[in-house]
Amino acid sequence: MVEFDKVGVFMARQKAGLYNFKEFYSFMYRWLVTEEYTVDEKEYTEKVKPTGKEIFVEWRARRRISDYFRFYLQIIISTLGMTEVEVTKGNSKIKMNRGEVRVDINVFLEKDYENRWETSPYAKFFRGVYDRYIIRGRILQYEIKVRDEAVDLLDQIKSYLALEARRFG
């Protein structure tokens, strides 16, 4: 059975800021693809309410590290009260979005994702021994690496949102 080791939970949030949701969405997707993640969109819902749009997006991004390990990021993007506004930049007007945007990143190290150690009870036992005693150092290295990648993504998100707010606000 595939085993998920939860490595961390991270969150970025911007209240009542200016941003372009479509560009922000594309920016995050491009970052993941550039880092060689395969991205599956599990959910995309959009609700129009009197206070503005509410959008909920859930991505599952995976990157193969070896036959045994895979990095796994669950990314949830949600907006509240998103409205469209026109902002003047130079001599032209640009359509932007205003509202709260929040990004949650759940970080996992996925082990035995091909179920190679699930063939018998003996194999499961040896897998436990293999994880605890033989490759414990490698597991810790991969946990640090996937956590660092998630922090890098989070920093990129914060920079993007801050730049968008400063550039047009």
Describe the SSE topology:
Layout: E1 3-19, H1 21-34, E2 38-49, E3 52-64, E4 69-89, E5 92-111, H2 121-134, H3 136-168
Antiparallel strand pairs: 1-5, 2-3, 3-4, 4-5
Helix pairs in contact: 1-3
Structure write-up:
By secondary structure, this protein is an alpha+beta fold. It has one domain (3-168). Helices cover 36% and strands 49% of the residues. The chain is built from three helices and five strands. It has a five-stranded antiparallel β-sheet with strand order 1-5-4-3-2, covered by helices on one side. The protein is elongated and about 70 Å long.
What's the total helix number? 3
| Mean pLDDT over the full residue set | 90
Order of helices and strands: EHEEEEHH
Q: How many strand elements?
A: 5
The radius of gyration computed from the alpha-carbon positions, rounded to a whole number of angstroms, is 20 Å
How many angstroms separate the termini?
50 Å
Low-confidence stretches: 165-169
Tags for this model:
169 residues, alpha+beta, five-stranded antiparallel beta sheet, 3 helices, 36% helix
Describe the structure concisely.
By secondary structure, the protein is an alpha+beta fold. The protein is built from three helices and five strands, in the order E-H-E-E-E-E-H-H.
